[in-house]
Amino acid sequence: MTGTPPQTRVLVVGAGPVGLMLAGELRLGGVDVTVLDQLPVPTTESRASTVHSRTMEQLDSRGLLGGLGTVPSSPWGHFGGIPLDLRLPSPYPGAWKIDQARIERLLADWAVRLGAQVRRDRRLLDVVDHGDHVEAVVATGVGEARILATHLVACDGEQSTVRDLLRADFPGRSAGRELLRADVAGIDVPDRRFERLPAGLAIAARRPDGVTRVMVHEFGAPAPQGPTEPTFADVAQTWKRVTGEDISGGTPLWVNAFGDANRQLTRYRHGRVLFAGDAAHQQMPVGGQAMNLGLQDAVNLGWKLAAVVRGHAPDGLLDTYHTERHAVGARVLGNIAAQSALLLGGPETGAVRTVLAELIRVPAVRARLAGMVSGLDIRYDVGAGDHPLLGARLPATALTGDGVRTDTTALLHPGRGLLLDLTGAGPDRVRRAAAPWRGRVTAVAAVPEQPGPLAGAGAVLVRPDGYLAWTGADPRDATAALDRWFGPPATPAPAED
Question: H helices within 310-424, ranges in order?
Answer without folding.
Answer: 317-344, 350-359, 363-374, 408-411
